[in-house]
Amino acid sequence: MSNRFLSLLSPLILLILAQPLVAQGTLPAYATKVLTLLVIVGAYRILRPYRSLVWASGILFVVAAVAVPADQALAGWVAHLIGGLASAVALATITVVIAYEAIHEHWVTRDTLFGALAVYLLIGVTSTVLYELIEVLAPGSFTNIHGLSQSQLFAELNYFSLVTLTTLGYGDIAPVAPIARTLAATEAIVGQFFVAAVVGLLISRGGAQRSSTQGHDSRTANLSDASQD
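Predicted structure:
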């Protein structure tokens, strides 16, 4: 059984879980970079048939890394704009392709479910990058995140993105700028549509899969009975 989606999902989950620990100083800052690299490697394993997209997204990630260096405080707003948009476009491209691959699986397997979950989480991470870009370019776009370091800011906005994606909405962090509110509303709509659409598709395909298997078993049993007669 193929585990191509699991190789992406595992570091993606670890990346999300590690953010609060990095922000608190429990884990070193390079843990985020290592896990991000593993996520990209896992994604490119799935994207290998799409060579042009692999090159395009790879170039975008390089542009983002060059535009916004490790010391992000030294980068101007133009660099943040270029770097943030490059990262967001690359992540969005990866998300769309992986969603296509997962949805077009002929059989619903455990790895198919891993792929669907990976896409769901990638929507959250992509939104986080956009939220961070908005806050960096227009400080005060979100409440209760002032005076944070870069790692703390990403961790807090990643948390906000995930509770928005699931429409949980605790309210401890809230968008106040119009563009931030628009993006949050869009993420919530996409998150709910994705869950409804994918769950419905998987259930439908799984039912057809079971019917096909039962029909095959029935035909096999009939042939066996006929041969014995």
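Summary: The radius of gyration is 21 Å.
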